[in-house]
């Protein structure tokens, strides 16, 4: 152990633990205030790094990008500076650990050369960087999707409620003919509604109904804390990091070398942690869903078959889950 590295790492490490804990508590307070006050955020931001905007993400794609090269998952999530930070340090670790040279030797079948090529002091950093980048990009995607849902629900409520109130002076149509479409929260939903308005259907004739995803109101907008799969992935990442470091250490002694044993132990650790996460029962958890469930139901009044065909086609074009209709024969005048 080198004293210069030891003391520097120790002080920074403990400060990071304390400061991240302190900041998390403060961030949670602001989160609670934002939820209670129904706070709004700008959907689009123009910055020096480009145009930032809310969009649905794929958490597994983000994690896979970080697995290929840490930092790419952060760029996928539009964390521009964090992504470049991760890419820079990963290049440092690759250079000083001689990982690529050892990997090339392993591919060419020179297994005995791998241990002599690798620098264990730098190689030991890599599992935590790789696992941390995958974990951050995965969880960040989930939270961005949740923020997208919240923001879209606020927009639909505000915009169409104002249109309904403005039309109550006698301009609202009392036609009992309805087209019904169900959607997930997505950008295509807003595109569909805007296209209908552009085609001549007044916003007062559009009724978005926000569906609850769970009986518990606190879970109505899917939260990562109550998502059983997300919690299992978190435990899996933590377990994979710990096991891969242990596998790399053994690899400098065992025949197959640290790269192969690190991958084997890392993959095995993830499966073990993921399985443990699935077995842990939480007081509040989301039900397992085999298929996509509707998060928004849209009712649109139509006056003739031409409008009905237009609405029907628009719903399907913009990724509706299901589409239906209520005609005069089955309509309830109370609607």
UniProtKB/TrEMBL annotation:
Keyword terms: Membrane, Transmembrane, Transmembrane helix
Transmembrane region(s): 6-25, 60-76, 88-108, 235-253, 259-280
Protein name: Uncharacterized protein
């Amino acid at each position: 152990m080198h004293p210069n590295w030891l003391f520097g790492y120790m002080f920074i490490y403990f400060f990071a633990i304390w400061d991240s804990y302190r900041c998390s508590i403060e961030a949670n307070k602001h989160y609670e205030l934002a939820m209670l006050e129904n706070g709004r955020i700008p959907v689009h931001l123009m910055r020096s790094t480009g145009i930032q905007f809310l969009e649905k993400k794929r958490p597994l794609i983000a994690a896979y990008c970080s697995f290929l090269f840490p930092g790419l998952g952060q760029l996928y999530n539009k964390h521009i500076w964090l992504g470049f930070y991760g890419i820079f340090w990963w290049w440092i670790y690759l250079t000083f650990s001689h990982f690529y040279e050892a990997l090339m030797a392993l591919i060419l079948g020179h297994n005995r050369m791998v241990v002599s090529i690798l620098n264990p002091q730098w190689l030991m950093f890599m599992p935590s960087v790789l696992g941390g980048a995958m974990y951050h990009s995965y969880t960040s995607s989930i939270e961005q999707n949740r923020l997208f849902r919240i923001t879209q629900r606020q927009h639909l409520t505000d915009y169409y409620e104002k249109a309904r109130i403005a039309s109550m002076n006698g301009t609202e149509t009392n036609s009992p003919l309805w087209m019904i479409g169900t959607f997930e929260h997505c950008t295509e939903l807003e595109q569909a509604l805007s296209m209908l308005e552009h085609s001549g259907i007044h916003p007062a004739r559009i009724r978005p109904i926000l569906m609850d995803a769970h009986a518990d109101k606190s879970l109505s907008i899917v939260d990562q804390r109550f998502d059983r799969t997300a919690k299992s992935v978190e435990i899996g990442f933590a377990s994979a990091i710990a096991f891969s470091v242990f596998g790399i250490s053994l690899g400098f002694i065992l025949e197959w070398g640290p790269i192969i044993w690190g991958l084997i132990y890392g993959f095995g650790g993830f499966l073990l942690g993921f399985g443990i996460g699935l077995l842990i029962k939480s007081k509040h958890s989301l039900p397992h869903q085999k298929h996509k469930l509707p998060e928004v139901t849209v009712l649109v009044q139509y006056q003739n078959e031409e409008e009905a065909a237009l609405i029907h086609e628009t719903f399907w074009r913009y990724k509706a889950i299901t589409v239906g209709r209520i005609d005069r024969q089955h309509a309830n005048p109370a609607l």
